[in-house]
Prior knowledge:
There is one protein chain. By secondary structure, the chain is α+β, with helices and mostly antiparallel strands. The chain contains nine helices and 24 strands. It is elongated, with a radius of gyration of 38 Å. The C terminus is likely disordered.
Amino acid sequence: xxxxxxxxxxxxxxxxxxxxxxxxxxxxxxxxxxxxxxxxxxxxxxxxxxxxxxxxxxxxxxxxxxxxxxxxxxxxxxxxxxxxxxxxxxxxxxxxxxxxxxxxxxxxxxxxxxxxxxxxxxxxxxxxxxxxxxxxxxxxxxxxxxxxxxxxxxxxxxxxxxxxxxxxxxxxxxxxxxxxxxxxxxxxxxxxxxxxxxxxxxxxxxxxxxxxxxxxxxxxxxxxxxxxxxxxxxxxxxxxxxxxxxxxxxxxxxxxxxxxxxxxxxxxxxxxxxxxxxxxxxxxxxxxxxxxxxxxxxxxxxxxxxxxxxxxxxxxxxxxxxxxxxxxxxxxxxxxxxxxxxxxxxxxxxxxxxxxxxxxxxxxxxxxxxxxxxxxxxxxxxxxxxxxxxxxxxxxxxxxxxxxxxxxxxxxxxxxxxxxxxxxxxxxxxxxxxxxxxxxxxxxxxxxxxxxxxxxxxxxxxxxxxxxxxxxxxxxxxxxxxxxxxxxxxxxxxxxxxxxxxxxxxxxxxxxxxxxxxxxxxxxxx
Length: 526
């Protein structure tokens, strides 16, 4: 083939319905890694922990773009090819359908008796009167009707058709897929999505520095962030305590006080799952929660080296959580300062067995406890690079050891204090706070995507329930009477047109005279 012929052949293959279906299936398959592998744009903390736990797979996944599937080259290629295929497939069909909608019902077949449904009758009425009655009956049934007058060579006939919306429903359904894709593309390019963890009692301002993770579209300007702020006043959660689903959160909601702009009037709102806080065009979703133990680290002289709530990230449904405490200015044994790191787990309802060790028996805080290992050395905070607050870089750290050479483990119940070795001070579990995980997003393509979904539903209903049908009626004079032929064709699979043909035939059939029967007395006077 010449280059022009090859380009034409490639375009026809790309814009075929078969290719569009294959690309749609590939797009669904390509989205699976985005649901299985932690995405940095959705949960950067979880993604970082996954990378630490799988050091061999991480370089491979990074080359394949599996930690950011929806921004990868291969996913974008499938997405763009699908859009092009749908446009090339649908636009020509729109022209064909438009011509089909404007076209008149097809001509009367020469042999009506060969159609699946066929009836004949005779009447004394004139052919024109029969055709007019057929036209009125079919119009009442919402058929598009055309009447052909008789001539010397052809008898008069009525052509009727309905069900054009079935093909229209198919086209609307395919067009809606394109609308949904455009809506998602607009949201990705013009919007943003960010995550933040806020401890109860703390606030959040919609600035870039307040986000734990943030991803903006290619055409989104950071200066367009809405200037709102809010404070998480409290958080309520109820866990089921009985039944097969014991331990599941029945409901949880956060009490929020917010302002739409600096200096604006404060407003209060409850934020719950599927009930976000909407401020202008930005939505704040409550997507998770957990515990933030209040930990205080004191030096030997009793001065406070660190104090405050520490976010512990849940690891399972019992809310066994992992967390890190970083103390950059701790007192060193014998004088001077050092950096101290504490790493361990929090158990809302502490339990212990010799087989499994410590565990959390219930997600609610009925018997909270913390178990941590202590490290000292260089936390890497002065290197100038970014560092996760939920992970401990142990490259420059050494574990604190007891006199027998075993690592120091601090096991603390609520309100308890443990001493660090070598006179380095104490660690106290002062109290327990909660935190909420919020997703702040601006997706301008939501209305477009919703419109596409509604159109898809309407198109699907039309393609399933609208039945395309054709009916023909022919009338001609033979032997002093009018011979009428009625025939129909149902173009949908499994359609039965017999009832409608029988009803039309009954309306065209002449009324029988009212004659006395054998058991009926005569009405004539005797």
